[in-house]
Design a protein that fits this description.
Layout: H1 6-16, E1 20-24, E2 35-40, E3 43-50, H2 52-67, E4 76-80, E5 83-89, H3 96-101, H4 106-124, H5 139-146, H6 152-165, E6 170-174, E7 182-184, E8 191-193, E9 199-203, H7 204-213, H8 220-231, H9 237-254, H10 256-265
């Protein structure tokens, strides 16, 4: 979507919520869509601007999750002068990323992921015939729409990665599980998933591949074993690890300086 001025976004929010006050952007700003927080009477509302096709797809996801008692944002759809945004009540839990910045121990990080896998298991058991958005039903469609192939290496990367998401059994899954998309309470062990954009039909091995790529610990095999124990379904662990290595090679070829910086940060 085309970016707008801050004044425009504020006007759109005030149009939907006349009592909105203290409209601001969160400390962790989204990379894909403009996100704002607004205090509306006795609650805080998240307003996330995006393409209407994505917003209406997310509303279907939100309603399904409510019906199946899956913890996730309950979205409302708003429009203003050719622009669309979804709104939902703000959750005060911090992201796993924020907890990690404060020194969350490894065992708690692992617990957060296993808690999320229990949610993922519930999502995967929703019958696929109940998920019928007009657009972006399959995760590969979202990938192709949001990740342009600017050069030959980008095309090679996309052909290798994206094609795997469309192979095999397609389940409804959250396909972008990482520390910034997990809300977590270390005290209770409860977790929630945010970013409904990432929920669509996908190959389960590909989804785990995406999770492993951004998993912050080294016990990757233990992570995948925990997923298998929770879901009762087998992953192709060796193929996932092979694909993970291939993606790292392609990443180095596409972004050599960035890859070198990441490697040195880990030392």
């Amino acid at each position: 979507m085309n970016p707008r001025s801050l004044e425009f976004y504020h006007a759109a929010i005030k149009n939907a919520y006349p009592d909105a006050a203290c409209i601001r952007q969160p400390e962790i700003i989204g990379m894909v869509a403009p996100v704002f927080l607004a205090d509306v009477l006795n609650r805080t509302v998240v307003c996330r601007f995006s393409a209407p096709q994505i917003i209406f797809k997310n509303k279907i996801v939100s309603d399904l999750f409510r019906d199946y008692d899956i913890p996730a944002p309950q979205t409302r759809v708003h429009a203003y002068v050719g622009s669309w945004f979804e709104a939902y009540d703000y959750c005060t839990d911090k992201t796993l990323y924020e907890h990690m910045q404060s020194g969350l121990p490894d065992d708690k990080i692992f617990d957060a992921y296993t808690s999320v896998f229990k949610i993922q298991d519930k999502i995967s058991r929703i019958p696929t015939y109940e998920f019928l958005p007009k657009d972006f039903r399959y995760h590969v469609q979202m990938l192709n729409a949001t990740s342009p192939r600017r050069d030959m290496l980008s095309k090679l990367y996309a052909d290798f990665v994206y094609s795997r998401s469309a192979r095999g059994v397609q389940r409804l899954l959250h396909n972008d599980i990482h520390s910034k998309n997990i809300l977590y309470s270390p005290e209770t062990g409860c977790a929630r998933l945010i970013d409904l954009d990432a929920v669509s039909l996908c190959n389960e091995n590909f989804t785990m591949l995406m999770t492993v790529q951004r998993y912050p610990l080294k016990n990757v095999r233990q992570l995948m074993s925990a997923y298998q124990d929770i879901t009762g379904r087998s992953l192709d662990i060796n193929k996932i690890l092979f694909a993970c290595n291939m993606m790292q090679v392609l990443h180095v070829l596409r972004h050599p300086i960035k890859a070198w910086q990441e490697q040195n940060r880990q030392k």
